[in-house]
Amino acid sequence: MSKTAELTRKDMKEPDRFQQVATQAMGWIGVHRQQAVVGGLAALAIAVGVVAALAIQASRAERAGAEGSTLLSAVGGEISPVPLPGVPGPFYPSEEARQKAVVVDADRLLADYPASGPAKLALLAKGDAHYRLGDLDAAAQAYDRYLAETDGKDSLRFGALEGLALVAEARNDLEGAVRGWERLGKEVPAFADRADLEGARVLVRSGKPDEARKLLEGFSERHPGSYLTVEASRKLGAMGK
Fold this sequence. Notes:
Strand order of the largest sheet: 1-2
Helix content: over 70%
Largest sheet: 2 strands, parallel
Order of helices and strands: HHHHEEHHHHHHHHH
Strand content: under 5%
Number of helices: 13
Shape: globular
Low-confidence stretches: 1-57
Mean pLDDT: 79
Radius of gyration: 26 Å
Number of strands: 2
């Protein structure tokens, strides 16, 4: 079959293109009827199955993307008792209402399309929403699931690691929070400067200023060029000797 009869995912989302390629495929079978018969019906069944699978996959991806868009709209929704002129919304009467809406949309996406790319984002959004609502166990579960379902190269992995550190601190598990920030620095080196700064803050809060000072004193050497260097120096100066 010619290359023009091959379907891409983009093509599958365009009904006209799908119909065109299907017509081309049937035309090819008509011209090469003898070859098709010799090849047997199994080959034809496989070809039809592949086309059908691609269609279903593309359709599911499109619907998952639509639910992901709805979720992101909720995350960025406006807090207002009434619609605001020129603002698309959605609108929520309170921050609590917005975060609850995020959880509902995230759960729907995870239930409908659990293996999709948007579902991974839903886990992060759900974790953040539960954290803001004070549902710390649910937040930790969402972050842990995200880390379990993504590899070390995932570009948003830092969000789940940071979330776990914040959850530990909210539970007043300061040692766990310090370990959480250390884990972030090790697993996502690009965020090591932020991990050290936050780790130092938690160490001070837990009554370990000497350990915090060690992190801050070598900050510029460990993280040359970091935009957080000024903040680290300010915090170190505020600690005194």
